[in-house]
Automatic annotation (TrEMBL):
It comes from the Bacteria. Molybdate binds at S53, S81, V190, Y208. This is Molybdenum ABC transporter, periplasmic molybdate-binding protein. PANTHER family: MOLYBDATE-BINDING PERIPLASMIC PROTEIN (PTHR30632), SULFATE-BINDING PROTEIN (PTHR30632:SF0). Residues 1-24 form the signal peptide. Pfam families: SBP_bac_11 (PF13531). GO terms for molecular function: metal ion binding; molybdate ion binding; tungstate binding. GO terms for biological process: molybdate ion transport. InterPro entries: ModA, ModA/WtpA, YvgL-like_PBP2.
Amino acid sequence: MKSMKKIMKILLITVIFLMTVGCGETKTTKNTTVEATKEEGKNVNLTISAAASLKDSMEELKTTYESENKGTTITYNFAGSGSLQKQIEEGAEVDLFISAAPKQMNGLKDKGLIAEETNVNLLGNNMVLVVPKDSKLEISEFKDLTKDTLKKIALGEPSSVPVGQYAEEVFKNLGILEQVKQKAIYAKDVKEVLTWTESSNVDAGIVYETDAKTSDKVKVIATAPVDKYTKIIYPAAVLKASKNFEEAKSFLDFLKGDKAKETFEKYGFTFMP
């Protein structure tokens, strides 16, 4: 009987010992994994898909952010918001999306592709009519686009470029949409509209006020009447599928902060957060 009790005691001690060792190994493994994750986190490449009109301001902010966050690299993909939306829907690996209109962001939201808790209205803008700097055309308002002296008008492609959608809304409300369409040359994004106008390949173009501010080769003729089109809003959100979710949120927080505000306002954007 004593032998049996002794054996049971030895077995109990052995089991307790094995359990203790096992727990220690689990803890060590967990800590090792956390440390490994931290090590991996030292080098992060964030992919940001952003409306083409944001290019100049975002490039400046990239320099600021990377200098303050060593190990983080920002890679941009600038294009028309509709094209960017389509790329994301087709599986493009993107961490953060900034659209030039709510329509494209809402499209991704409806498909469950954005982290809704991160969705924010980041910026506002205005739309302007520009002509080449040396233009001699006698125009002073949007309605003058119907004049026979204007042959070519550059617009963003309405199906994928928000500035084109906003422009058509203005033309429709002014009662000149069909007349302008007959002269329209459609561009893949607002930067292309600006380039065509700068080079005098067109007589006039419709761009954002922020784009006009970046060029000394065009002059602003008129600002679109704010009561003739939907308010311009740039929403931003982190993608659910982001492999760098927390880092993407941190960058978005930076874009909502005072340093970014100063940069955005310098380029003519209205800061909304």
